[in-house]
Amino acid sequence: MTTTTNLSLFQTLLLVLACQCCAEVAAVFDHVKVAANPIDGIVSTANQQHRPPAPPLPLGIGTLANSRGRVAINSTKAAVDLKGNGNGNAVFDVKKYGAKANGKSDDAQAFMTTWIAACRNTTGPAKFLIPKGTFLVGPVVFAGPCQSRPITIEIQGTVKATTDISEYSSPDWISIEGITGLILTGSGVFDGQGASAWPYNDCKTNNNCQILPNSIKFTRLNHSIVDGLTSINSKGFHTSVFRCYNFTATNMNIIAPGNSPNTDGMHLSTSKLVTISSSTIGTGDDCVSIGHSCEKITVTNVTCGPGHGISIGSLGRYKTEKSVLDVLVQNCTIFNATNGVRIKTWADTISGSAVGIIFDNIVMRKVKNPIIIDQTYGTKKKKASKWKISNVHFKNIRGTSTTNVAVLLECSELFPCEGVELRDINLSYGGASLKNTTIVSSCLNAKIRTFGVQNPPACVV
Questions:
Q1: Among 50, 267, 292, 308, which one carries the catalytic annotation?
Q2: Which one, of 148, 147, 74, 85, lies nearest residue 112 by Cα?
Q3: H or E element: which one contains 420?
Q4: Which of 24, 85, 200, 441 allows an S-S link to 407, with CB 3.0 to 4.6 Å?
Q5: Closest Cα partner for 292 from 400, 222, 387?
């Protein structure tokens, strides 16, 4: 069969359905072009902390994901009205496309049918609407590029993940990818129903473990906004941002128990111009983790706790990782957490750097390690990290530490930390076990400059 290189994605999807995954269709997919992303030159197979690379995604505007892999939706369901309501501001309600909203039937296929209609709308902006109700949904992929710009996903109801982890062939429950001008908003809830899956989080000891899926993964999004997202009890990460450009997340409410494993609130990697603001995050892992190959990241007015604090890293685990540049964490409160603000790199790994990191105006309340640089993360090896940390500023950080070491800077012997500024640090002991405890600073291979108040006293280097 002879194919051309300019098929639309919708035509390609119909071809897949007609040929039922024949060999000729694979050749078509090889020639379909995807819209360029400003950071597509940054390539990484290790796109998530704690996780191996995700399998490649097939191209198309919508797929279901099951234990056999991602498959195209049923062809009889794909024949949908692409005109919406015809008023130039089309609304596509999942219930009108077959969603039962009874909390028992899997509404994944209805969601995908609705997505195809919204994504291919040609009358102007489109809204993918999840109305009030409870929707049980298995793994799905909302893929672009879309003709509708902007395209809005509005959630008013509760979307619950299916609990059988054997259904998740990829490490994501809801994947949103390849879109310019996405808006995700609404007062509803994404419920990962993670409690039944957390006991299976044994990848540190079991090489054949089942990787628990992220609740929502954003991939290759340009100029996109997430406003008002509520995510509870994810199986893995609540949200992951990968290869995104100009991405804003605000007014989020992310919740999981403090003992839930690897439930990071928002994990970033290979992304540029990302802002996280005005949000409340309490999980069993990092509230925000900024991974490799990130640049120009801003985290402001975030309340974090419980959890592992706000972290840069971990960095240096995989060979494809690149540097982290220009990160600002400002006006945040961290409470009942194991860490406050942290930079963590693996020992004895690839070379890289973290440069231009600012932690400013941070309040700590009962935090175990308020200020920490850890360049021996993830290993008991005594070999030095090859990741170079420089131009780091800890400014106006105050509150209580539950341990006597409130400032811990453990840098690499091979590449000592340079240009570390401690300005107006005012921490006191707030633990329950020891009374009248004097807190201290501990430093190794760190070149420090101090300004203003220093409590505990800064290390003498």
A1: 308
A2: 74
A3: strand 417-429
A4: 441
A5: 387
Tokens 């209805």: give the residue.
110
Local confidence band at 169 (pLDDT 50, 70, 90 cut-offs)? confident
Q: Report the Cα–Cα distance between both ends of the chain, in Å, rounded.
A: 72
DSSP H helical segments within 202-329, as ranges?
none
Which residue in 252, 258, 251 sits closest to 239, CA to CA?
252
Q: How far apart are CA 113 and CA 122, in angstroms?
A: 16
- The residue assigned the tokens 């930079």 is 343
Show the domains of the chain with their CATH numbers: 1-33 (no CATH), 58-202+209-285 (2.160.20.10), 288-461 (2.160.20.10)
- The token pair that represents 71 in the structure block: 């498959």
State the amino acid at position 290 in one-letter form: I
What CA–CA distance (Å, rounded) separates 353 from 372?
17
Nearest CA among 356, 449, 350 for reference residue 409: 449
Contact 409, 345 (CB under 8 A): no
User: Does the pLDDT at position 305 exceed 50?
Assistant: yes
CA distance 372 to 411: 10
Structure confidence by residue, pLDDT tens digits, 225-236: 999 999 999 999
**Annotation marks residue 308 as catalytic:** yes
- Evaluate whether 440 touches 411 at the Cβ level (below 8 Å): no
Q: Which amino acid is at 448?
A: I
